Structure formats: structure tokens, C-alpha cells
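Folding Task

Wanted — backbone structure
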Amino acid sequence: QVQLVESGGGLVQAGGSLRLSCAASRSLFSINVMGWYRQAPGKQRELVATITRGGSTNYADSMKGRFTISRDNAKNTVYLQMNSLKPEDTAVYYCKATIYRMVTNNDYWGQGTQVTVSS
């Protein structure tokens, strides 16, 4: 089991920045992939960025160059630095932990944190 707690969301003007945090209840070295996803009203949840246990990162095309995912292993925390925010970035942002198993993977989600970007 993994408990995830997101924080750092809020209201920001277009062009501004926010840093989201996701604190995990266990060592990040025991988790294969950590990721950020988002869901806007009326839309499906979509990938924002992921970071593997080894530190490899992956971003959705629309976030490349604006968002940066990182991790602090000592704090069991993953971050999402969001710069040059746009109104279309408004969504609930969720943290996900994936642990690989023999037959199927186990996914764990946080409760989400609201990000609102005003124009």
C-alpha cells in the first residue's frame, strides 16, 4: 500500500508558477514510477509527467518546456514545477504511484489538488 498526499495547488494568474508536492508514505525506491496526471471539468484524466525509480522522466507534449517533475528521495516526495501557466492548465492534479508486480501493476492515487489559472 502507498498513501499519497498532494499539496501546493491554488489560484494563480496566467503566466505565473506553482509547485505541487506529492508526499508518499513509503520510500520512493520501492515505487517503480511516480506520476502527475490532471483532470479538467468534463474531460478525461490525462498524463502530465512521470519519473521512474531510476530518474528517467517523461512529459506530455503540451507540458514540455513548461513543467518539470523531480523527486527528493530523502523526503519521499515528488514535485511538479509548473511555469508559464495558462488558463487551460486549470484542473485537478493527481499524483500516482505504480508498483510493478508479476501479473499486474498496482496503482495508487492521491486525493488531488486543485489548480486554477485565471486569465
